[in-house]
Every structure is written in structure tokens, then in C-alpha cells.
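Onboarding guide, step 5: your first structure request.
Type a short instruction followed by the sequence, for example:

Predict the 3D structure of this protein.
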Amino acid sequence: MKTFKLPDLGEGLQEAEIVEWHVSAGETVKADQLIVSVETAKAIVEIPSPCDGVIGKCHGGEGDILHVGETLVTFEGGEDDAGTVVGRLDAGGAAGSSDTFFVGAAPSSLEHQAPKASPAVRQLARRLDVDLAQLSGSGPEGLITRQDVEAAAEQSLAKFGGERLRGVRRTMAKNMARAHAEVVPVVIVEDADLHQWGEARDPMIRLAQAIGVACQAEPLLNSWFDGKGPSLKEHAHVDLGIAVDTPDGLFVPVLRNITARSGDELREGLGNLRAAVKARSIPPHELLGATITLSNFGTLFGRYANPVVVPPQVCIIGAGGIRQEPVAVNGKVEVHPILPLSLTFDHRAVTGGEAARFLKALILALQAPEA
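The system replies with C-alpha cells like these:
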């Protein structure tokens, strides 16, 4: 039998959820023929057949999550093709080896023996927070298999209640947990007075341009370039992540090189990214490498926020809803359109002074008359 295992999908992606099978057992396929669609943390990925052959078995059903190196398809006939395997991960179906040598006397060495499980199964148990010591293996000589670990995880989930997070929401949860563990967040807020704008306002494009100006005026994000490259002021290349809320979860497509593009080019690029996100056709590389992120949550509701910084970025801008508010002008009261802004920054990488100067530069650029 020849096996085709879930390949490395790039960008550090370690797992994928099966969305739809395009073939079935007994079907003859050609090399490069589409066999399955999977959803990663980034987008929908179409996986082709690596060779001509007859499908013996499709492993996993729609909604199942497979990890890189797990068997995806078995072809009838032939020998196992190591060329299609990305990392030889033992799924735990065969007997594994373990070190049973112990230092020090004990009433019984059985008390010190580690549970029998392959490295891949141990890794899965850590990921699913399953204690192998509490399991009885169903494999040969008590070997704990992948199925044993997954069953224990399902039982734990059933006791807790709720539904398993999948796809984009699963990734979002992981990113939020990572941010909570790694970032020291500080928030500062201020308002931008937009009374010098025209009646027809396009805040997203003006915000993108103002962020680009502020990044050049105050090299806030130098640490993003790992200290080896030039400062942002000299670099002048800023890739802006745009937080897009969808029913499936939060996507952050990246608008490239905002400092070198005109307003019309930014508008077109933003429209293309939003359309690709809506169609779930955006390629993974368009969701990576942002210098800074903009969350325009005000289009939904709210004035100020505490946006979450996701490493390796060191700050994020949140824009609230534009309001008509009274302001004092030369001793008189006027009503102006006011845009509330929130800046969260990682205090490990950015000082309070740098953050304040950055926000000031952003607001000054934003309050300038429209060109």
C-alpha cells in the first residue's frame, strides 16, 4: 500500500481541518488531481494527488482535524512512498520503545515506568492536555494509541460542555492565549478632530495613510526588524494588518507597503483583501508579516477599546465610531466630527514616550485637511 500523508502546508501550519473530499475509495485518480479541501488557520487549501493510482481509503471525515505527517490517503498497491511523507510521525498503532532504566532503589520499578506511547502520541497528549498516566493503552502490551488520547480528550470535553473550537476561531484562541502569556500591554487613548475633512469621509484609507506617516515619524517598531536592519524611519516600508470580523472568526489580511501607495491604490487593495476574506480564497501569505495592525471596531459599536497585541508585532491601533461632539474653539462651542483612537503597545519593546509620540504623529497626520 502507498500512503500520502498530510504535507507541510507552509508558514508554520501544523494542522488542518478536512472541509470536503473530492474523491472516494475505489476511484482512479491522476497526479495533480484535486482530492481534498482542507481549512488551515489561514485559509482553504486544495490538496492534489501526488501520483496516479486508485484510492484505497480516505482517512478522516469532514470536520476532522489532521496534523502534518498523518495519513491522508492510502492508494491501492505499491510500496509505502516515503517521498510523500512530511516528517515520520508514528500514529501510535505499532509498538513503541521506552526507556525502563531507573536510578535509585524502589519497592517496585513499575511505579516509575512511564506510560507506553510513541513520541507522536505524547506530543498529541500534551497538545490536548491529556494525562497519559491516567490512561490504559488499547495497543499491544498496553501501548497508548492516538485513539486512546483522542477518546480521553473527547470525554473531558463532554464533561465540560460546549463545542470544540475549529478553524479560524481555534487559531484566534491560540493567538489570544499566546498574547496574554507573552505581552505586557499598555493602552493610551486620544481623539482626532476631523473637522477639516470634507463631507464624504473615508476613515479607513486616511487611517492607513496616517499610520504610515506616524511609523516614519516615530520609529516605534524598530524591534520588529530584530535590531539588524534600518529603523522604520529609514526603511519606510510599512505593512498594515487590517482586522476583518467575519462569522467564522477574525481575519487579519495585510495591506502591503502603505507608505508608497496612493489613496486610490490603498482603496483598491483593501477592497480586494476584503473580497478574498469573504470568499475564503485569500492565500496564507497575505495573512502574514504585518508591521502593525488596525482594528476599525467602531464600524460595529464602541468608542475606546483595549486591542490585543499579537506577537511578533509590538502595537495595534483601534478606531472607534466617529461622533459629532461639542468642542471649544476660540472661546466658542462648535460641533465637530471626533474619531476616538486607542493604542495598545507592548511595554517590553516600546517606552511610554515612544508610544505617546507615535500616537501624536498619527493624530496630527489624520487631522490635516484632505489633499
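Each response can be followed by summary notes, for example: Helices lie at 119-128, 146-160, 167-182, 203-217, 232-235, 263-278, 352-367.
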